[in-house]
Specification:
The protein has 290 residues and is mainly alpha-helical. Helix content is 80%, strand content 3%. It is built from eight helices and two strands; from the N terminus they run H-E-H-H-H-H-E-H-H-H. It has helices spanning 2-20, 31-36, 39-76, 82-107, 112-139, 163-194, 200-277, 286-289; strands at residues 26-29, 143-146. Strands 1-2 form a two-stranded parallel ribbon. Helix 3 (39-76) packs antiparallel against helix 4.
């Protein structure tokens, strides 16, 4: 907001400076237009968008898993003891906290999305800054603004837009770097072609060294994979143990309830059999007594 106020004040006072002194040259650039026309930025943006969609999909799957856990708990609540209910609720709370931590890691103020987007735009911003400095010094501009919400340009004539000039400098620099890269690549190929053939012993040593490096990389990768597998096995073991404990408690609870039902049913049957075997005697009438 302070930047907007200062720039607005400047724009309002420019006419007075122009009348009192020489003519002031002012220009502006459209950063969005420049970014949309830089191929490297567009490709990096596409990759970042793909990565972002993957993160969102993972978060949605985790949230759906928690919803399923909640639904299963509600369906089985009547069959569970108080301890089992509290354990399931603690597990749900843990999963929810893990989801919030993952969201903050990816999309928080210091998350990967903000960091990678900053890394994505910074090189282009540096190129724009260098191009603006070159144009400003060469054409003797007094001020060059960025036509964005922060600048708050109330009006800007198209003739003051130097975005295409900045874009041309960036593209020219990119082509120059590409030519230099091709030249270096060509020189490297020529150098390799001019080098004498290596001896059989040297070639064998190089091949052996390459095999050793590959073996080291494979061993490191295998060690890392084994570590990941070990962690996964531990998590699976804990999860399976909890599941077995839950199933055992649930089976015991159901068995106890079934035994109680059977006991009550047997008691009722015994009472019914006893009543059928010894029916209550009816009271004697006056005629029977005579």
């Amino acid at each position: 907001m302070r930047n907007r106020f200062l720039i607005l004040c400047f724009l309002l006072t420019v006419p007075f400076w122009a009348n009192a002194q020489r003519s002031i040259k002012v220009a502006y650039i459209d950063m969005e237009y420049i970014l949309d026309n830089v191929p490297e930025y567009k490709e990096a943006s596409r990759q970042l968008e793909s990565r972002t969609q993957k993160w969102k999909s993972e978060i949605e799957k985790k949230m759906q898993h928690v919803e399923d856990m909640k639904q299963n708990l509600e369906n089985e609540r009547a069959l569970l003891t108080k301890e089992l209910i509290e354990e399931r609720e603690d597990e749900i709370a843990y999963e929810e906290k893990a989801i919030l931590a993952y969201q903050d890691e990816k999309f928080g103020p210091q998350g990967q999305f903000i960091v990678q987007k900053r890394q994505l735009i910074q090189p282009v911003q540096d190129q724009v800054f260098n191009a603006v400095q070159e144009i400003g010094e060469k054409r003797q501009y007094d001020f060059i603004f960025e036509n964005s919400a922060d600048a708050l340009l109330l009006f800007s004539a198209k003739r003051h837009d130097i975005s295409d000039q900045v874009l041309n400098i960036i593209q020219r620099s990119s082509r120059k770097l590409d030519l230099e890269y091709r030249r270096e690549e060509r020189d490297e190929k020529e150098k390799q072609a001019e080098e004498p053939y290596k001896s059989v012993e040297q070639a064998a040593e190089d091949k052996e060294e390459a095999a050793e490096r590959e073996a080291i990389r494979n061993a490191q990768e295998q060690e890392r994979q084994e570590l990941l597998n070990d962690r996964q096995r531990k998590r699976d073991s804990i999860r399976d143990a909890r599941q077995r404990e839950f199933e055992a408690r649930r089976a015991k609870l159901l068995a106890d309830r079934q035994r109680k039902r059977d006991s009550l049913q047997n008691l009722r049957e015994q009472r019914n059999n006893a009543n059928n075997a010894n029916p209550p005697s009816s009271p004697a009438t006056e005629e029977d007594e005579e």
